[in-house]
Amino acid sequence: MRKISAMLLAGVAFGSVPAMAQQANTAAAVDSDEAEIVVFGKGETRQVQELSSKELLILAPGTSPLKAIEKLPSVNFQSADPFGTYEWSSRVSIRGFNQNQLGYTLDGIPLGDSSYGNNNGLHIGRAIISDNIGVTRVSQGSGSIGTQATNNLGGTLEFFSADNSDGFGVDANLTYGSENTMRAFGRVNFGEAGGVRGFVSGVYHNAEKWKGSGDQRNTQMNAKAIIPVGEAEFDAYFSYSDRSEKDYHDLSLEMIKRLGYDHDNYFPNYAKAIAAARGVFVAPINNLDDSYYDASGLRKDTLGALGLTTPLTDAVTFKVKAYYHKNEGQGTWGTPYVASPNGVPMSARTTEYDIRRGGVFSSLNAEVGNHEITVGGWYEHNDFTHARRFYAYESNTTAGLDHSKFLRNPFRTQWLFDFNTDTLQYYVQDKISFGDLTVNLGWKGFQVNNEANPRIQGTLAAGKIKSQDWFQPHVGAAYKLNDKAEIFGGFTQVTRAFISSATSGPFATTQAGFDALVARGLKPEGSDTFELGARYNDNVFNGVIGVYYVNFRNRLLGVSTGAGIVGNPAILQNVGNVRSIGFEAAGDVRLGGGMTLFASYSYTGATYEDNVITPTATIAIKGKDVVDTPKHLLRGEVAYDSDTFFGRVGANYMSKRYFTYLNDKSVPARVLVDATLGYRFDAGMRVPLELQLNAVNLLDKPYVSTIGSNGFGNSGDNQTLLAGSPQQFFVTLKAGF
Q1: How far apart are the C-alpha atoms of 513 and 518, rounded to whole Å?
Q2: pLDDT level of residue 42 (50, 70, 90 thresholds)
Q3: Mean per-residue pLDDT for 519-538?
Q4: What is the CA radius of gyration of the chain?
Q5: Among candidates 128, 394, 81, 56, which has minimal Cα distance to 245?
Q6: What kind and span of H or E run contains 14?
Q7: Most confident by average pLDDT, 114-118, 273-277, 518-522
Q8: Residue 614: its pLDDT value, please?
Q9: DSSP secondary structure letters along 388-417
């Protein structure tokens, strides 16, 4: 049945060529010639693209905004679920830099490094409902020096919430689909452009896992208000998110061959998990790590911000915003390596997170002659509590624990740390206009103080470490050849600050190891990025080509010393440099009548420049390709939008990816196809009723999505892969009142 549905959907999509969505839930259909989905950074002195809200609205509702950007050059996004929201598997990398080396902000609010073991922020999917995003800006280089981030070695992702300007109205949509997916979204909009305006919205999303048992569930609320007072403008934002995700099991190539892509955890078969923990396996399972009883990721987040934008004179503007973020999180595993005190041969192990962080950032912009000068600063204090605990199952016949809920009353705490991090950053920038030539000059600097205070130290490190770099220069230029074409180029230097965490960074080792790192002067990672490119824009074609060279300095590598679930301390060290050279191209063609074509291609040649030398061995990785960095990414789309029909078919090619530093193990290339079909009904309401059908992995391709979920090894197979979701269908009804 799924194959027949797929062929019908593909046939209709290619036959009638319906594609492209409306500009927003609150807007009527727009001709694709009049509103662009992708804007290729016109006038920018670096490689940058912007995606409008239309890009998210044509995807399956609830799709992560990180998945939406995978169509852009050099962006590699992976997830084991169809929406790209499952955080254990969610990975985005740009030009060979992983997601922890990218910067993320929402309306300027820093979101941290987007790690699963979140220590300084939260994923964008927990910060805002995807339906409420207005613009997404992606900088493949190190991005704007004004970004509130101290880790953006390889790019920035800036998200901006929608700004309502259409008066009072209610938007709602309801989605049902594969794996009993249910999603309900509602938003009340108020106000108009230039006046008091904003929205209040909420969403409920629940989907059964596509393999194994358990649900992926989240509930979220957003509210935003903009209040003009004279010439000034106040803004406020609030978000609450409650997310519970049952995990998919990590695989290796050998496990995929022996057990299949559909292999998962034992849940809800508790008896089978108990038997396996005692060493009694049911073929083809033959070891403890083939399956665990259950696992989950739990996160509750509250985020709030207040801002002010005001002109001081006709040529000077001041902006300031304060924010606060509270997080409670648990990552749970049913581990057979630690027994419960009551004789049950396994226990529930958690890694627990508690974040209380607040900060303020501001800028002063002045136009003086042909200069646009900006000075800005950012301060944040973060109190992060990190713990590893164990909880007892009730008996050998009854679990008595629900991994979809926060666990309480542990029988053991392995370690418990209070981390304090103070971040201070400033930047200076001058944008100078010389007619057709624009020059950007500037720099940023920061100091980050990290402190680990143990309540229960275990085998991990305590102490203090500091990273600072007060001068990180940026220079760029854009030259307008004519009204349609321009060339651009630039250089940026960035340093990445150390993080405060017990599971990664300088504290995730023994005390002796940490003391040695401090004594020998551990250096923070840094990057030098050179870019050169050209853009073209007219009523028919909009595109960009570019080349880049990146020198990634002082790469830090944490060498693990056991299976991921065991949680042994890693050994952190500087292991040399990485060189990346690449080519990027993207463009869209407006064929008229609502028909458009889009394509992007990127080549990334990222290699290690140094061998890794340990006390016992030399790992000869010099000249090897960087792990999880496909050389070739190619995306293409055919889209159509009329007053009634709309739709899109897109194909996504990714070449093979290595998951060992010596490049002896890899996952093969794959092509994924997604499609959208939709129809609008004139029901006499504020906007037409809209029926939308989405297909994810339309051709039902079995493939490995995420690699490196448990890190990367030097050589050989490793249980660090996640299977991608099979063919999935979703139908959505949208209405505006």
Answers
A1: 9
A2: confident
A3: 94
A4: 25
A5: 81
A6: helix 2-16
A7: 273-277
A8: 78
A9: EEEEE-S-SS-----TTS-----SEEEEEE
**CB-based contact 47:531 (threshold 8 Å):** yes
Distances from the Cα of 130 to the Cαs of 40, 167, 185, in angstroms?
Answer: 22, 21, 10
For 49-53, 236-240, 629-633, which range has the lowest pLDDT when averaged over its residues?
A: 49-53
**pLDDT of amino acid 570:** 63
Confidence label for 397 from pLDDT (cuts 50, 70 and 90):
very high
Contacts of 397 (CB under 8 A, 6+ apart): 270, 271
User: Of residues 72 and 560, which shows the higher confidence score?
Assistant: 72
Strand stretches in 393-484, DSSP E: 412-434, 437-456, 463-480
Concatenated DSSP letters of 607-628? EE-S-EE-SS-EE--TTPBPTT
Query: For residue 517, what pLDDT is reported?
Result: 86
Query: Parallel, antiparallel, or unpaired for β 181-191 and 169-177?
Result: antiparallel
Phi and psi angles of residue 511, each rounded to the nearest 5 degrees, phi first: -65, -40
Helix or strand (DSSP H, E) at 274: helix 270-277
Round to whole Å and give the CA distance between 266 and 399.
12
Q: Take residue 457 and report the two structure tokens written for it.
A: 């130290």
Q: Per-residue pLDDT averaged across 590-614, rounded?
A: 94
Q: Report in angstroms the alpha-carbon separations of 214 from 118, 236, 268, 297.
A: 23, 36, 8, 12
**Regarding beta strands 156-161 and 169-177, do their DSSP bridges make them parallel or antiparallel, or are they unpaired?**
unpaired
Residues 174, 732 contacting (CB under 8 angstroms) = yes
DSSP string, 356-389: EEEEEEEEEEEEETTEEEEEEEEEEEEEEEEEEE
pLDDT averaged over the chain?
92
Count of all residues that appear for the chain in the document: 737
Q: Which two tokens stand for residue 474?
A: 């940026």
d(CA 17, CA 12): 7
Q: Which helix (H) or strand (E) holds 6?
A: helix 2-16
Find how far residue 171's CA is from the centre of its chain: 26
* Of 460, 457, 380, nearest in space to 420 by CA: 380
* Residue 10: predicted pLDDT: 40
**Identity (one letter) of the amino acid at 730?**
F
Q: How far is CA 236 from CA 2, 152, 190, 227, 370, in A?
A: 45, 26, 14, 9, 33
Element at 65 (helix H, strand E): helix 65-68
Residue 674 vs residues 87, 130, 458, 609, 697: alpha-carbon distances, Å: 21, 19, 48, 38, 5
For residue 281, give the nearest of 672, 273, 310, 215 by alpha carbon.
Answer: 273
**In sequence order, what are the residues at sequence separation of 6 or more whose Cβ sits closer than 8 angstroms to the Cβ of residue 357?**
120, 121, 324, 325, 380, 381, 382, 383, 384
Residues 111 and 127: beta-carbon distance below 8 Å: yes
Can you tell me which residue has the tokens 């559909």?
A: 262
pLDDT the model gives residue 559: 62
DSSP code of residue 524: P
Tokens 């041969």 label which residue? 345
pLDDT tens, residue by residue, 445-500: 999 999 999 999 999 999 999 999 999 999 999 999 999 999 999 999 999 999 99
Mention every residue, 6+ apart, whose C-beta is less than 8 A from residue 381.
357, 358, 359, 420, 421, 422, 423
| Structure tokens that stand for 697 in this block | 């992995």
Residue 124 reports pLDDT greater than 80: yes
Pinpoint the alpha helices (H) of 473-542: 511-520
